[in-house]
């Protein structure tokens, strides 16, 4: 029943082939076994005894793209409310009991998913599972206005701290609105608006819980130092009797074509912010996570901005000396991704000049394949990062659940890595040409206060 | 899928400038008013499917492994911790010189020197060196802190040999090319300008200057100020390197899938030509008593800011102080965990902030206790009052029994987690080596931390966490916060500083 067990060393053999262009045929896998509970909940167990630590990751298939009209920020607000207590574990007890026994926890929300994770000494596992089962079973109906109000204020301060009072932080609020049309599930920022956060009601919370926090919509990973048979028995006794209404229907992106950008022209805007140096951000809609071209765009991000020898750094920072810093990254999502280029100007350099310089480099990658040396370089960097991410129990748990959510199986590490191994110079060029179009993109500028033209 | 909104605020970024303290406990426990324990079994007619809350056994003991220590022919010390589970290696070349070695008025010299090491070394210029590192899939970086400088390398074992040669070039044969320096200096200056717009960084700069005095070793930021950076030229950087980057001062820490024989072979090949100059290494000037601790209120104006960044600092233990690790554990309960007194009070009870916490930074000649939070502007006065009060109650009444237990449990697992990644382990050991601590330090510290009693913790809390005479720094909209601060009992009259840590007249 427990199926495959791999030695941890097996996780990383792929890395051994990694030197100057010689791709290894060795496989890569994160040891794990998958079980399905009767109520539809997915359970993934990944055993590894190198340190006496254990991590639990519970992922719910709900993120900001699932939010109702005028309820932006709700999935994330709900994430905070998941710590607000039940009859068995009253408000505050989740954290208190966990920390009192050496554990810690956190959670995050994206456009697509909400992830809860706990980590602690190996002896804590029964408590972690009990607490996670308790809140999935009972939290929603016990919600009160007082609990909602408390976390509403915390979240509004999170919005201030991470966005409004941080240089360039407002970009994250505005970019999704410019990049995706109204009605698109990615149109609004994950954290939502103050106005909508203010408007959230207890009834909203209860309904959200009943709809999305269903065992059939959740996947539980345990990673680290534990015994599988005993743990599976415990998980069954805690979780299997939680009733399910069946997996809710994923709303996807109604009315918006998959595999095609909705941008048809250049969208421009300038923001003022409490910043020293002006910045230009360019963004495109690109293929979804694990879709054709997604891996190539990861590599292209590295070609453009990974290290001093990368295209944008070398041209704009090192040679022309017009930019302070550069970044280029594929941010992958379930419905679609976005490719974002951001460049900070040096003092006195007009943003027109920065944009022209970026465009020149983008034109090069659209028209001419990257060199063999560059391709090897970025593959090696990406592959090493890939392997390094598997080092900690918490990350391993998170990655297994990411595969489960995105491709329906946790057993995907090898195929994920294969995407980079198989990428070709012309494949990268073709993807850049197809997706990073000069005539269909967002160009957002951030300028110091009072400097808006 | 990229944007994560954490439930917990990251518990405090650095309160003071990048310290390299032995004990920077920004960790973890209970509260002013700990939540009432829930009934273990709710009164229900039906059997609870979950049953009672499971008991948690005490975690198994974990003693940090001590690295093997040996010396190379050229006088370099080596600390090796073998970890063969995964085919990766992390290296940290650690030197005991940091911003405390910066000459007066030349803050940032150690930092600028480290920054220049990978801008061309050995036979390669800056770009070729970067390409060569990337080609191996390796990461290599050089930087300085308050008491240390260092170069770190992370690489898959398969590529260790060639990566080791590049590391040796960077450490022992930097080119200090004038063209590269011009660019680095310009980028550096622009970053310093940008720092003036970041509330947390500004609070850190101002708090250090106020606590130690801007002209004192720990009083200036590691990366310097606009004024000091303007004074530093390449000749000074070269001289600083010659005087301080020498093998008899260096410890090379290696953690991961490498044996002593493999490491020795690599060292003999790559580092053999590195010789110490004649004469003894420079000594770090002794630090005067922190002179700032007089009880001050400092306001840095950030007009229209939606939040105030509050930072409260006072002197703490040095790294050599036996109380340092006990203070690190005690800090868990005041502000080093999600359920700490500060976070529960400011965030969970009042909703004034996304997070509040405290941190102990221990350095070779100094230490700092820092409390901080970013709060909604309209709650600035309330939050300052609450933070001062929480710290005072903690210092005078000590820890609750629950906090004593919780800090022990959290500190125990922290030690295990510190050894989960080869790169973080190498950094931890590199810090120890640079600070002159023995290779057995982590094991001894873990024991001392674990065995501290309530009396020990209470004594340390009283000695180090009382906010009387602490310095309160507010980075926020002056026009909105002054009247609130005037309402907080016991706060002195405000002084006004600029974002670079200089006093200025009120606006």
TrEMBL record, chain A:
Residues 200-380 form the Peptidase M16 C-terminal domain. The keyword Zinc applies. The keyword S-adenosyl-L-methionine does not apply. Residues 1-25 form the signal peptide. Residues 43-165 form the Peptidase M16 N-terminal domain. Keywords: Hydrolase, Metalloprotease, Protease, Signal, Zinc. Transmembrane segments: none annotated. Belongs to the peptidase M16 family. This is Insulinase family protein.
From TrEMBL, chain B:
It comes from Pendulispora rubella. Residues 31-42 have a biased composition (Pro residues). Residues 22-63 are annotated as: Disordered. It comes from the Bacteria. Residues 85-196 form the Peptidase M16 N-terminal domain. This is Insulinase family protein. Residues 1-21 form the signal peptide. Keywords: Signal. The keyword Signal applies.
């Amino acid at each position: 029943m427990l199926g495959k067990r791999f030695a941890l060393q097996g996780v990383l053999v792929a890395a051994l082939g990694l030197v100057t262009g010689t791709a290894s045929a060795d496989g890569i896998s994160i040891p794990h076994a998958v079980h399905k509970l009767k109520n539809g909940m997915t359970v993934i167990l990944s055993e590894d005894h190198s340190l006496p630590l254990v991590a639990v990751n519970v992922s719910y298939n709900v993120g900001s793209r699932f939010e109702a009209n005028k309820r932006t920020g709700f999935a994330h607000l709900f994430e905070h409310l998941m710590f607000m207590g039940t009859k068995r574990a009253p408000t505050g007890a989740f954290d208190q009991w966990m920390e009192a026994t050496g554990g810690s926890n956190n959670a995050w929300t994206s456009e697509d998913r909400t992830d809860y994770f706990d980590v602690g000494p190996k002896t804590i596992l029964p408590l972690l599972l009990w607490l996670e089962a308790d809140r999935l079973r009972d939290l929603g109906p016990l919600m009160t206005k007082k609990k909602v109000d408390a976390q509403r204020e915390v979240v509004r301060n999170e919005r201030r701290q991470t966005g409004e009072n941080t240089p360039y932080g407002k970009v994250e609020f505005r970019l999704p609105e410019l990049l995706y049309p109204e009605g698109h599930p990615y149109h609004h920022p994950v954290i939502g608006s103050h106005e909508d956060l203010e408007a959230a009601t207890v009834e909203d919370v209860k309904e959200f819980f009943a709809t999305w926090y269903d065992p059939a919509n959740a996947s539980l990973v345990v990673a680290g130092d534990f015994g599988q048979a005993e743990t599976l028995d415990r998980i069954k006794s805690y979780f299997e009797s939680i009733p399910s209404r069946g997996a809710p229907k994923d709303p996807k992106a109604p009315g918006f074509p998959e595999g095609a950008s909705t941008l048809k022209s250049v969208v421009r805007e300038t923001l003022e912010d409490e910043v020293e140096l002006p910045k230009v951000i360019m963004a495109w809609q690109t293929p979804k996570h694990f879709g054709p071209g997604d891996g190539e765009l990861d590599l292209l991000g590295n070609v453009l901005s990974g290290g001093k020898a990368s295209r944008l750094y070398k041209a704009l920072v090192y040679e022309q000396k017009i930019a302070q810093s550069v970044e280029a990254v594929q941010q992958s999502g379930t419905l679609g991704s976005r490719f974002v280029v951001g460049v900070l100007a040096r003092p006195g350099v007009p943003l027109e000049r920065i944009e022209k310089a970026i465009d020149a480099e983008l034109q090069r990658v659209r028209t001419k394949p990257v060199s063999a040396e560059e391709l090897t370089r970025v593959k090696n960097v990406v592959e090493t990062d890939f392997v390094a991410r598997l080092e900690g129990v918490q990350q391993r748990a998170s990655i297994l659940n990411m595969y489960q959510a995105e491709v329906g199986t946790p057993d995907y590490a090898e195929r994920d890595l294969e995407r980079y191994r198989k990428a070709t110079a012309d494949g990268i060029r073709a993807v850049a040409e197809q997706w990073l179009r000069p005539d269909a993109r967002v160009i957002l500028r951030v300028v110091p206060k009072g400097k808006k033209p | 899928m990229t944007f994560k909104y954490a439930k917990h605020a990251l518990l405090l970024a650095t309160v003071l400038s990048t310290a390299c303290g032995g004990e920077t406990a920004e960790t973890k426990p209970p509260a002013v008013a700990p939540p009432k324990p829930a009934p273990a079994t709710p009164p229900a007619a039906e059997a609870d499917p979950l049953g009672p809350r499971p008991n948690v056994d005490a975690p198994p003991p974990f003693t940090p492994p001590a690295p093997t220590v040996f010396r190379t022919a050229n006088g370099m010390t080596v600390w090796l911790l073998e970890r063969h589970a995964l085919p990766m290696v992390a290296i940290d070349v650690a030197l005991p010189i940091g911003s405390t070695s910066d000459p007066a008025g030349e803050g940032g010299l150690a930092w600028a020197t480290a920054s220049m090491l990978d801008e061309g070394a050995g036979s390669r210029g800056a770009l070729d060196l970067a390409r060569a590192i990337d080609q191996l899939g390796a990461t290599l970086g050089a930087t300085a802190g308050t008491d240390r400088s260092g170069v770190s390398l992370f690489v898959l074992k398969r590529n260790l040999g060639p990566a080791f040669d590049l590391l040796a070039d960077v450490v022992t044969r930097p080119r200090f090319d004038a063209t590269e320096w011009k660019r680095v200096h310009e980028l550096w200056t622009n970053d310093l300008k940008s720092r003036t717009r970041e509330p947390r960084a500004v609070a850190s700069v101002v708090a250090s200057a106020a606590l130690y005095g801007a002209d004192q070793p720990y009083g200036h930021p590691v990366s310097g100020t606009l004024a000091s950076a303007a004074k530093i030229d390449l000749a000074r950087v070269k001289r600083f390197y010659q005087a301080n980057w020498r093998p008899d001062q260096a410890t090379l820490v290696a953690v991961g899938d490498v044996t002593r024989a493999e490491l020795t072979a690599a060292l003999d090949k790559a580092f053999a030509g590195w010789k110490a100059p004649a004469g003894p290494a420079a000594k770090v000037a002794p630090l005067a008593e922190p002179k700032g601790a007089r009880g001050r209120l400092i306001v840095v104006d950030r007009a229209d800011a939606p939040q105030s960044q509050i930072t409260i600092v006072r002197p703490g233990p040095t790294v050599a102080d036996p109380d340092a690790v006990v203070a690190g554990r005690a800090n868990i309960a005041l502000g080093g965990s999600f359920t700490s007194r500060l976070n529960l009070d400011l965030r969970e009870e009042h909703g004034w902030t996304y997070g509040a916490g405290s941190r102990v930074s221990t350095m070779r000649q100094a230490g700092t206790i820092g409390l901080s939070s970013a709060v909604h502007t309209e709650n600035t006065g309330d939050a300052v009052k609450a933070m001062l009060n929480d710290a005072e109650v903690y210092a005078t009444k000590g820890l609750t029994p629950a906090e004593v237990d919780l800090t022990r449990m959290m500190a125990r697992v922290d030690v295990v987690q510190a050894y989960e990644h080869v790169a973080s382990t190498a950094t931890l050991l590199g810090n120890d080596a640079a600070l002159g601590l023995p290779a057995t330090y982590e094991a001894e510290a873990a024991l001392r931390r674990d065995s501290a009693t309530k009396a020990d913790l209470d004594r340390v809390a009283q000695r180090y966490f009382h906010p009387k005479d602490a310095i309160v720094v507010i980075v926020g909209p002056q026009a909105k916060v002054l009247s609130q601060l005037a309402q907080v009992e016991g706060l002195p009259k405000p002084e006004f500083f600029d974002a670079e840590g200089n006093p200025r007249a009120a606006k």
